[in-house]
Amino acid sequence: MTYLATAPGGPAPGFDAPGVEDFDLPPIAGIEGLTKPVVMLVFSAVIIYVLFRLAVRNPQLVPSKGQFLGESFHGLVRNTIARDMIGPEFLKYVPFLTALFAFILVNNLFGIIPMIQFPTFAHPGVPYALAMIVWLIYTFVGIQHHGLGGYLRISTWPPDVPWWVRIILTPIEFISNIILRPITLSLRLFGNMFAGHLLLLVFILGGEYMLFVADDVALKLLSPFAFGMGIVFTFFEAFVQVIQAYIFVMLTASYIGTSIADEH
Amino acid sequence: MKADRSSGGGATPPPGDAWNALSYLLSGFLLFGGIGVGLDALFGTRWGTPVGLLAGGTASAYLIYVRYVKS
């Protein structure tokens, strides 16, 4: 992504637009495979563990502030996601969904927390792994509830259509529900985090270039607008990050609910 | 799917379900477009891919209708 380098900018070096290479962070302390996202993943697990631990350390009938926050978080997942999406047997899945929501939320918010400022899920490998776990769970509970044949039937058998239409639609259902679901699930999260981070990079690095590198006085004067947009989009990203974490968990619950739904 | 469990007709599906429409749409294009590409490569024709894509899109749209509107 260097085509902007040829843009007119006087004798100063052209602006190198941020691109995919900005997501390839160097290994820490020369250890192969130990990169910032890896550290952040572990760090997020520790943060979540400690926060939930503190929230339930000394449970009271009249909750303390921490306990109230922890219970609200749990209640949000239980009442607005699990109960609506899964149906009568939702309670069993609430711990998993709560942990998943917390994990994605913290890792997404890393993208705008100063000094960290990198959303872990901007690397597609991380959402792929989560989607694989989700896929294993909803496939397993589906087979557990209906047997293999029954599970395939509810996920690939469109209701109330003639047999020759079914020949056409069943392969589509199979590809969609068995193969594509985890891919779209992970790519939606990855794409949003990747694009959001890139957007922030463009505005912040662009503003930096305009202010410090470019010779043009007009560019220097306009640079506050680039920084301003960077700040505006940081708030926008906060919104996107929360929404995407919510959607991932909501879809997970929806898939589980579909897997264990009674046949009609 | 889950809306089917409620007895009354016209129950709205839960909001999460609609997100699957995207993967239904992609699947139709992938499957029948892929078949079209394969047939073209096999017989050296050029019309298989567009016909496959159109057929796949139509089938996907119909599947979405069956899953979300009709049931």
Can I get a quick summary?
Chain A contains 6 helices and no strands.
Describe the structure in your own words.
The complex is a heterodimer of chains A (264) and B (71). Chain A is built from 6 helices and no strands. Chain A has helices spanning 36-55, 65-86, 94-109, 125-156, 163-213, 217-260. The N and C termini of chain A lie far apart (53 Å). Chain A has one domain (20-260). Chain A is mainly alpha-helical and 264 residues long. Chain B has 2 helices and no strands. With 71 residues, chain B is mostly helical. Chain B has helices at 20-43, 48-70. The longest helix of chain B is centred in the middle third of the chain and has 24 residues, at 20-43. Chain B has one domain (18-70). Chain B is elongated, with a radius of gyration of 16 Å. The interface between A and B is medium-sized, with 30 and 27 residues.
Would you list the SSEs of chain B in sequence order as H and E? HH
Largest sheet of chain B: none
Return the average pLDDT of chain B rounded to an integer.
Answer: 78
Strand composition percent of chain A: under 5%
List keywords for this structure.
heterodimer; A: 264 residues; mainly alpha; 6 helices; 70% helix; disordered N terminus; B: 71 residues; 66% helix
Question: What is the element layout, followed by pairings?
Answer:
The complex is a heterodimer of chains A (264) and B (71).
Chain A: H1 36-55, H2 65-86, H3 94-109, H4 125-156, H5 163-213, H6 217-260
Helix pairs in contact in A: 1-2, 1-3, 2-3, 2-6, 3-6, 4-5, 4-6, 5-6
Chain B: H1 20-43, H2 48-70
Helix pairs in contact in B: 1-2
